[in-house]
Amino acid sequence: MSLSASYSNATYRLYDDKADFHKKAQSIAVGLTVGSWTDLPEAAKEQMQKHLGQVVSVDVSESSNPGERYADIEIAYPDANFSRDIPAFLVTAFGKLSMDGRIKLIDIRPSADFLSAFPGPKFGVQGIRDLLGVHDRPLVMSIFKSVIGQELPNLREQFLQQALGGVDLIKDDEILFENPLSPLEKRVEACMSAAREAEQATGQKLLYFTNLTGSTFQLKDNAKRAIAAGANGLLFNVLAYGFDALAELAADPDISVPIAAHPSLAGALYPSMHHGISAPLLLGKLMRIAGADLSLFPSPYGSVVMPKAENLAVKEALLTPSLPQKPAMPVPSAGIHPGLVPLIMGDFGPEVVVNAGGGVHGHPGGPAAGGRAFRQAVDAVKTGSSLVQYAERHKELKQAIELWGIRTS
Amino acid sequence: MSLSASYSNATYRLYDDKADFHKKAQSIAVGLTVGSWTDLPEAAKEQMQKHLGQVVSVDVSESSNPGERYADIEIAYPDANFSRDIPAFLVTAFGKLSMDGRIKLIDIRPSADFLSAFPGPKFGVQGIRDLLGVHDRPLVMSIFKSVIGQELPNLREQFLQQALGGVDLIKDDEILFENPLSPLEKRVEACMSAAREAEQATGQKLLYFTNLTGSTFQLKDNAKRAIAAGANGLLFNVLAYGFDALAELAADPDISVPIAAHPSLAGALYPSMHHGISAPLLLGKLMRIAGADLSLFPSPYGSVVMPKAENLAVKEALLTPSLPQKPAMPVPSAGIHPGLVPLIMGDFGPEVVVNAGGGVHGHPGGPAAGGRAFRQAVDAVKTGSSLVQYAERHKELKQAIELWGIRTS
Ligand SMILES: [Mg+2]
Ligand SMILES: [Mg+2]
After folding, report:
1. Distances from the Cα of A261 to the Cαs of A362, B93, B267, in angstroms?
2. How close is the nearest chain B Cα to the Cα of A217, in Å?
3. Locate the Ribulose bisphosphate carboxylase large subunit C-terminal domain: which residues (chains A, B) (predicted)?
4. Shortest CA distance from A94: residue in chain B
5. Nearest-CA neighbor of A374 among A402, A409, A401?
6. The domain A124-404: what is its CATH number?
7. Is the ipTM reported for this complex over the cut 0.95?
8. C-alpha distances in angstroms, A386 versus A374, A375, A379, A398?
9. How far apart are CA A40 and CA A19, in angstroms?
10. Per-domain residue ranges for chain A?
11. Among A217, A267, B24, B263, which residue is least crowded by beta carbons within 10 Å?
């Protein structure tokens, strides 16, 4: 195999009780590139060689139990075959192939040349920390509780109460769309005025991620309208629009605020063992390459579950120095309360957003107390205290752990 | 349940050995709309009632075998909660929920009001037939064999040979992207000149579906460039860009040619029993609402298989008069040869595109003979002949059935 030109690789897991996986790998490498090979005349082979896919590896896991035999197959696709956009590579590597039996796309390794087309996150982990002026602890994010059908003054008050607890980031609910009660610009203005009010009280800078929605070809305009109205962050349901929409938004110099990627619809793609796209690729590597500054994904702690190993692989994909794009902030979400903070910080390390909805709003002292309880939990871990110790002198944390307990594993 | 306002429904299949499915249905209806209900004060309830989701039905299929107990749950979502675009509805109905256990989105029933925002296919079945002047038989489509790495004269010759057999439609390979050898406008010009040449010879009008690719926000421009260069059809990898991109392209009055939706990446979404989106919804109803004039999907006859019942449900969704959008042409694809034509016409009825790649190019007499063999097979069925009978006086059909045989079930 001569790989003098540039190739981008894809790795698949294929389940099949009987297939000749080496033959299958060859048929993928040929079928998804030049179409046919052995019957080509020599002159044509010479010309087509640079477009021919290559089998990199075939790693068979034998089993005689029905349904358990599989192989991991890595194929190198010539960069000459596709344009420098994610749809082109995904369609090449997993377009037709996705429909060809029990096959899941588990990883990609795009070439340096392909990756160079993607500026990636404008801010990333460091940029978000710089915007907030917070460099020495995990960030805390709060999610609006109920937003549909709420008038602007209610939304503003909800924002303010969350903000007063000292959280760093507040995000819209991903199911809040353009609507007469809280249209985009008015919502941004109301929430950002609450953010300034809270900042006066807490001294804590705040980013508000307003939900970017609407028709595909209006997304850039909507983003710019939100920013013109004062938005300092955007939430985006990436999978409803495709990775390229995110990549184009992130690459636009006028979209000068961080983008948080919501995993909406991801459950249609990652959980099956036999089909779809693995979570670390879908919510980790692809989100980062496409330019998400933060990526939300189901935490291993709540009711919406992803196994912890998979969770940590998503995190790894977002943070690994092996990609040229800036690292993106991991935001494990769902089921988070202050009693989980030591565990989250243990599992994820320092670069993580502690993201809570019910854990803020359900606090007995209200959402401001909820935010404070999270900040106290973070401070406890940072200063080497146990939550129980720290709660002795911090009543919001005390109330939180009385209600939700402490989970250590 | 009072449904005086307008609601759009979604139906899910949930697998769970123990869950209280009725309780689960309630928690979906509340959780994905107003967030919480029982703890709301009465005044708030009055205001929020119109935003509250409603459980339409819970149909439990009991089983004590592990993994086999499931329920079909239909929820009505108030149209007041989302904008009139597919991302908004999908994110509402299956955004977060997609990650909540073993749950698959199996159908949607959007309200008349929601549907009225979608003009749907510009041409549809009747419009495509009118463009071609063919009203009395299934259409025949041929797919380029190998396109990557091919110079324009080669592509033109490939196009011409396919066209000379009398096929109605020719489509690009979905993995042909913008590239120096066959850039969009030059490719369109070369292929359309071959189409005119073939039309002189056969008297048969031809539609050429050129692959619409590139960055999301350039799609409209690219489509218009292709059309300005003479393209009379577009192929689009819908799932790589999202349904809204298709909807916006289809609604643009300047994109005045039919759009064929390619099912690229669909296998990441539909085949799992427990996750994703059902094929009839994904490749049938949603494609049609979004405006595909033709929808390709894996045939039940080839190696890329979808069970026949699912296939016919895709077809039904594309053709049923119960939607306001024009019917879209079903294009079952993969593994099609002339000996399958009676079976296809039996399974799908008259409104179907017989779509072949290898079945045209692999004909012993070459692709022109391959096209003729398909047209002969169609004519045989239309005139009530058996293929064997008809092949006695039609040598291309004879060669085809000698090579591939005849399949009757
Ligand atoms: Mg939410
Ligand atoms: Mg193809």
Report:
1. 25, 18, 23
2. 6
3. 124-293, 326-404
4. B265
5. A401
6. 3.20.20.110
7. yes
8. 14, 14, 10, 12
9. 26
10. 7-115, 124-404
11. A217
Architecture of domain B7-115: 2-Layer Sandwich (3.30)
Cα separation, B242 vs B72, in Å, equals: 26
Nearest to B138 by CA among B167, B172, B173, B171: B167
Q: E-strand spans in B79-215?
A: 102-109, 139-143, 169-171, 207-212
DSSP A124-152: HHHHHHHHHT--SS-EEEEE-S--TT--H
Longest dimension (CA), chain B: 81
Neighbouring residues of B359: CB distance < 8 A, sequence distance ≥ 6: B336, B337, B338, B370, B374, B400, B404
Q: Which residue out of A37, A176, A265, A360 would a mutagenesis test of the B interface target, given it has the greatest number of B Cβ atoms within 10 Å?
A: A265
Closest Cβ opposite residue A242 in set B51, B94, B216: B216
E strand or H helix at A58: strand A54-61
Q: In angstroms, what is the span from residue A16 Cα to ligand 2's centroid?
A: 23
Residue pLDDT tens, chain B, 409 long: 444 589 999 999 999 999 999 999 999 999 999 988 888 888 888 889 999 999 999 999 999 999 999 999 999 999 999 999 999 999 999 999 999 999 999 999 999 999 999 999 999 999 999 999 999 999 999 999 888 999 999 999 999 999 999 999 999 999 999 999 999 999 999 999 999 999 999 999 999 999 999 999 999 999 999 999 999 999 999 999 999 999 999 999 999 999 999 999 999 999 999 999 999 999 999 999 999 999 999 998 877 668 889 999 999 999 999 999 999 999 999 889 999 999 999 999 999 999 998 899 999 999 999 999 999 999 999 999 999 999 999 999 999 999 999 998 8
- For residues A15 and B151, give the distance between their C-alpha atoms in angstroms, rounded to a whole number: 38
Cα separation of B282 and B372, whole Å? Answer: 33
Tell me how far apart the alpha carbons of residues A226 and B310 are, in angstroms, rounded to a whole number. Answer: 43
Structure tokens at B216: 């999301």
* Cβ within 8 Å, pair B274-A272: yes
Q: A33: which chain B residues are within 8 Å (Cβ-Cβ)?
A: 148
Q: Please tell me whether the overall predicted TM-score, pTM, comes out greater than 0.95 for this model.
A: yes
Using CA atoms, how far residue A210 sits from A39, A172, A186, in Å, is 56, 5, 11
For residue A274 the two structure tokens come to 């036999």
Which residue shows structure tokens 């002795």?
A392
